[in-house]
Design goal:
Blueprint lengths: L2 H10 L10 H9 L9 E8 L11 E5 L10 E4 L2 H9 L4 E3 L1 H8 L7 E4 L4 H5 L2 H4 L17 H9 L2 E5 L5 E8 L4 H17 L10 E8 L5 E2 L2 H6 L2
Parallel strand pairs: 3-4, 3-5
Antiparallel strand pairs: 1-7, 1-8, 2-6, 8-9
């Protein structure tokens, strides 16, 4: 038994594994589980009753968390001329076109979010094989392929979270840091779950959210009350 498992076992005592917590109580509980030497991320995991192998049951989108994510996000924009100027003014960290794509080809990726104007998506396509696996490919569904680059940069900087259901029907996202106030975390949690509910595919049958859990980067999970999640409209 290593030191970590002892620490983890201590945390387990604070969580009732037979209970589905109401959201407010879950946030309170998760805040008591902070034990790492860094400001841990509060993470949500949802299991959805969808089969993403069918295109009409794919759940994908983005939402701006009202209290931000607590992370500093480095934003790159592939744009030219006036749109490049607009991106710089909005506070993008890196702006370019061919030069930026060349850097990506060399494996120099110094950004967390990539935004592109639609007319330059052909250029972005050249590095799709590099960007795709890293989850950095711009996509109209997450607002990262757009002519409104200023808005996209602002969203990315102010706490936009992209979500996409995996093959098993799970969605994971960070909702902020454990140092956030309870109110900030509740705002972010409610906003995120509402966005997931809004994206419910018409083809999804039965209970849309099967279950959910809240945890920290290095903590046990706290099960959430599914009905409360479903009722967040």
């Amino acid at each position: 038994m290593g030191k970590n498992s002892k620490r983890f076992n201590e945390l387990l005592k604070k969580v009732d594994s037979n209970k589905n917590y109401l959201l407010e109580e879950a946030v309170d509980t998760v805040k008591t589980l902070a034990s790492a030497k860094f400001d841990e991320t509060v993470e949500i995991a949802l299991k959805l009753n969808v089969d993403p192998r069918h295109a009409d049951q794919m759940v994908r989108g983005s939402v701006v968390l009202p209290s931000g994510t607590g992370k500093t996000v480095r934003v790159a924009v592939i744009a030219k001329d006036a749109k490049a100027d607009e991106a710089k003014k909005a506070g993008a960290d890196i702006v370019g076109d061919d030069d930026l794509v060349e850097n990506i080809q060399k494996g120099i990726i110094e950004f967390d979010v990539l935004i592109a104007t639609p007319n330059l998506m052909g250029l972005v396509g050249k590095v799709g094989r590099i960007l795709g696996p890293k989850g950095l490919m711009p996509n109209p569904k997450t607002g990262t392929v757009t002519m409104d680059v200023a808005q996209a940069v602002n969203n990315a900087k102010s706490g936009q979270v992209n979500f996409r259901v995996d093959k098993q029907g799970n969605i994971h996202a960070g909702l902020g840091k454990v140092s956030f106030t309870k109110e900030q975390l509740m705002d972010n949690l409610n906003t995120f779950v509402r966005a997931i509910n809004k994206h419910k595919p018409a083809a999804a049958k039965g209970r849309y959210i099967k279950n959910g859990a809240l945890s920290l980067t290095m903590s046990p999970a706290v099960s959430l009350d599914t009905q409360e999640l479903i009722d967040l409209k």
